[in-house]
UniProtKB/TrEMBL annotation:
Name this polypeptide is given: 4-hydroxy-3-methylbut-2-enyl diphosphate reductase
Native organism: Aquella oligotrophica
Keyword presence, 4Fe-4S: yes
Stored Pfam families: LYTB
Pathway entry: Isoprenoid biosynthesis; isopentenyl diphosphate biosynthesis via DXP pathway; isopentenyl diphosphate from 1-deoxy-D-xylulose 5-phosphate: step 6/6; Isoprenoid biosynthesis; dimethylallyl diphosphate biosynthesis; dimethylallyl diphosphate from (2E)-4-hydroxy-3-methylbutenyl diphosphate: step 1/1
Entry's EC annotation: 1.17.7.4
Binding site for dimethylallyl diphosphate: 42, 75, 126, 225-227, 269
Length: 310
């Protein structure tokens, strides 16, 4: 019998939930428009819905008129963006940066103050990486892959050297990069607690467990969503055909030729309503039973800014 296996946990994490709620509450309380620097989370459905309600997404602070309300996205912003926003005559600024990203920002600023050279593992051009690296002005180097370590122009016996990571990387790939870094720089200081966040870890663990019993995996998430891309890659690396889609209508029936078990998961920025759409579509394609595969329960929540709590 053809079946759907649903990964658990999947979809919204606490940081995404908080960021979207900040935009919604700001719209409710202060009225449209509110300006948001960058897509508040990387999901087309979510962003389009907020645009309809009066959010205006901008990349450049110059595009925010004086007297407006501004919100920073969940990915965080460099200090230069905060400084620029502060210098404008804005009514209010809300910070929707995920607290787990802010934790890495604090870590970097502390390391910098103590004279450390910092290596960041992350994806070039991703807004979280730009925000995190932008917490300091220099002595920070970005690497994406193990091979980049050989190109770092730093003395191997450097005493004060530390590593931080983007929160949404592949857990396994990051481990092997850090192993090589430790061999290259014997004095390397590691983060006290992992920078890769609980939601990334849990969603990857669930896909790993699910992939064992699936012939294909569908990941619901947008193409610019880092954690969704990692879920797709992970299933592929385990030898399972994997597809990243925003909406159920993107599913091509030929993807499911000779597929008796199809795994479904969603990146941390994809809402459950999109998962429901995919399940319905798959039912129409003959996948009549649904099983859930759960690796852990999540109970994380993050507080809203005090002005938006009521
Ligand atoms: S994926 Fe992790 S770091 Fe990113 S918003 Fe969610 S909890 Fe925060």
């Amino acid at each position: 019998m053809k079946k759907i296996i649903l990964a658990n946990p999947r979809g919204f994490c606490a940081g995404v939930d908080r960021a979207i709620t900040i935009v919604e509450k700001a719209l409710e309380k202060y009225g449209a428009p509110v300006y948001v620097r960058h897509e508040v989370v990387h999901n087309k459905y979510v962003v389009d819905g907020l645009v309809e309600r009066g959010a205006i997404f901008i990349e450049d602070i110059k595009d925010v008129p004086a007297g407006s309300i501004l919100i920073y996205s969940a990915h965080g912003v460099p200090l230069s963006v905060r400084d620029e926003a502060q210098s404008k005559n804005l009514t209010m600024i809300f910070d929707a940066t995920c607290p787990l990203v802010s934790k890495v920002h604090v870590e970097i600023r502390n390391l910098y103050r103590q004279g450390y050279t910092i290596i960041m593992i992350g994806h070039k051009g991703h807004p979280e990486v730009e925000g995190t690296m932008g917490q300091v002005t220099d002595h920070i180097h970005l690497i994406e892959h193990e091979a980049d370590i050989d190109n770092l122009e730093l003395p191997r016996d450097i005493e004060k050297i530390a590593v931080v990571t983007q929160t949404t990387l592949s857990v396994d790939e990051t481990k092997s990069i850090i192993e090589k870094l430790k061999k290259t720089f014997p004095n390397l200081k590691l983060p006290k607690n992992e920078d890769i966040c609980y939601a990334t870890q849990n969603r990857q663990d669930a896909v790993k467990a699910m992939a064992e019993s699936c012939d294909a995996v569908i990941v619901i998430g947008s193409k610019n969503s880092s954690n969704s891309n990692r879920l797709k890659e992970l299933a592929e690396n385990l030898g399972v055909k994997s597809y990243l889609i925003d909406f159920d209508y993107e599913i091509q029936p030929e993807w499911l030729n000779e597929v008796s078990s199809v795994g479904v998961t969603a990146g941390a920025s994809a809402p459950e309503v999109l998962v429901e759409g995919v399940i319905n579509r798959l039912r129409g394609l003959g996948y009549s039973t649904t099983e859930s595969l759960s690796v852990v329960e999540e109970h994380m929540t993050f507080a809203l800014p005090s002005e938006l709590r009521s």
